[in-house]
Amino acid sequence: MSDLGELYQELIVDHSRRPRNFKAIQDATAKAEGFNPLCGDRVTVYLKMDGDVIREVSFEGSGCAISTASASLLTETLKGKTLAEAETIFDGFHKLVTGVAKGIGPEETKLGKLAVFKGVCDYPTRVKCATLVWHTLRSALKGDRQPASTE
Ligand code: ZN
Question: From residue 58, how far is each of 31, 138, 140, 151 by CA, in Å?
């Protein structure tokens, strides 16, 4: 279990137990649902855009600690960011959790708190838990009507 200790870092545990921005946005400008059949994680992402800027972002749903913490940290990270900035962060996050960025310091520092998910790359089945909310966010931004799925 000592290896899992690194995966379930304090910040991840904290955000999974007390998720931030865990609510619906009534006047959301975009929303999407996502599902990770591998683990059973479900998430709904709400967005309130102001032109190109993410004014508000929130989520609801139920899932494992990793998926909930990832969604919570996404909402904290993306509030006030532009779409282009969000894409760059997603790209870096995806590289981090899939192990592409392994051993590359700067990738992590640019991600801020999201860098706590670097342990996920050692647990391939957990990668989808961590990225579900990001795929769902993309669906919301694209206006997809079909629920996002990690499969
Ligand atoms: Zn999960």
Answer: 10, 14, 12, 23
Q: List domains and CATH numbers for the chain.
A: 3-149 (3.90.1010.10)
Cα of 95 to ligand 1 centre, how many Å? Answer: 18
Residue 52 C-alpha to ligand 1 middle, in angstroms?
30
What's the one-letter identity of residue 97? V
Judge if pTM exceeds 0.85: yes
Question: Around ion ligand 1, which residues have CB less than 5 A away?
Answer: 39, 41, 64, 67, 129
State the chain's mean pLDDT as an integer. 89
pLDDT, tens only, 24-61: 999 999 999 999 999 999 999 999 999 999 999 999 99
